[in-house]
Amino acid sequence: MHRNATGFSRVDYGFRGEGVTSFEPGLPHLTNGVPAEEALSFVHHGTGAGDVAFLRFLEDELGICLPFEETEAELPSAAFPHAADG
Q: 36 with 11: CB under 8 angstroms?
């Protein structure tokens, strides 16, 4: 996940070294690859910021949490390794 100071955010998701999807949360027309709802079961609902919605999704669905203080500034990147299957 990447977010800069101008509000641009981007999520890139890969599995086993292959790119699966790249999207700006809340803007499905800016998706490259598999739609976010298909790849990650992420659907942005509401009018709030897409990147905030995605961070909440990570916390609620995967138990991954970034401290609020770290989300106030530019987020150059954050990599979240997926647990090994089985």
A: yes
Strand-pair partners of 33: 21
Q: Are 33 and 19 in contact (CB under 8 A)?
A: yes
Place of tokens 């890139």: 12
Q: Are 26 and 53 spatial neighbours (Cβ–Cβ below 8 Å)?
A: yes
Q: What is the pLDDT of residues 43-75, one digit of tens each?
A: 887 777 777 788 788 888 878 777 666 666 665
Helix, strand, coil share (%) of the chain residues, nearest 5:
25, 30, 45
pTM over 0.85: no
Token readout for 60 is 């609620």
